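#struct-queue
[09:14] JT: dropping the first one here, sequence first, then the C-alpha cells:
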Amino acid sequence: MSSRGVCSRRAADKLIVAGRVTVNGKVIRQLGTNVDTVHDIVAVDGEQVREQLDSRIIVFNKPAGVLCTCKAGKEQGPILLEYLPNDRRYFPVGRLDRDSSGLLIVTDNGQLAHRLSHPRFGSTKVYRIIVSPPLLRSQAMKLAKGVMLSDGIARAVHVRELSNKEFELTLSEGRNRQIRRMVSALGSRVVSLTRTEQSGIRLGSLRPGQWRELTDDERHRLTASISSSTT
C-alpha cells in the first residue's frame, strides 16, 4: 500500500492489524502477507487501492469563471468537467473559487485526490494577487504577521511585494476564500487571484483552459512528499 501512495509502511501495518484491509474480499491481519499486484484486489475500508503509477495526474490552468467541479449538474456557467478528457472520471485536488484562476491538480484517483487535499499533507501554494485600492507597506506586512478572521488568525508563510497593488503570497493552509477575506479585513479587495504553484508543481507557460500531464520528475516528487507526510 505504501508503494501505491496510500500511506507509509508503518501506517499500513496499523491498518492491517486493525482489520481494515482486505485482499479479494477477505480481511487479512497477518503482516507481510504476499499479494499478487496484477491479479489481487486490495481494499482499505472497502475502497480499492489502485496502482498509483497507473493513475492519471493532470495540471490544469483554470480560467476565472469556471466552477471547480467534475460533476455535471444544474450549475450555471462552465465547469471543470468541460475542459478535461472524457475518457474517465476526474477529481480535483482542493479547490479554486469560481472567480479565481490558475493551477489546479486533477487526478482520476479519488483516493489520491483525497490524500493530497488533506491538511496533513501540508501542501504549499503560491498565489499572485492584484488588489484595489493599493495596500500600504504596513498593511501588506500584516498579511505575513497575521490577520484576524471570523475563523481565527490567518497568515501567509511568505509575502513578496511586486507593487503596492500586486503581491505574491505563499500559503500552507487552505481556508475558504482565505486570501480574499484577509485582504478585505485590511480594507482592500482582491480583483485578480491566480494560483501559480502547488506542492512544487508550477503553472509555467500553460495557458488558461489548457492542461498537461505531470512530468516523471513531478510525479516522483509528489509521491515522495505523500510518503513523508504519513511517517
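[09:21] JT: and here's the second one, same format:
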Amino acid sequence: MLCDAGGAIKMIAEVKSDFAVKVGDLLSPLQNALYCINREKLHTVKVLSASSYSPDEWERQCTAAGKTQ
C-alpha cells in the first residue's frame, strides 16, 4: 500500500524486490516502474501491478488473495 504523508491509502501495488520494504519507508520514483527505497538508488522495487485505492478495490484484492491461499 502506498500512503500519503497523512497516512491515507492512495494506491495498492504488487512489487518485486530483493530488499524488504518496511512500514514508513519512502518510495521515490525512478524510471521504468522502478522506485528506490528511502532514496537509496541501489535499493529498488519494481512495480508489477498497481491500482488506485478504493474500499471496493481493497475488498476485491482481499477476496482474490483468499482464493489463492
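[09:30] RK: nice, looked through the second one.
[09:31] RK: The radius of gyration is 13 Å.
[09:31] JT: good to know. The chain has a mean pLDDT of 81.
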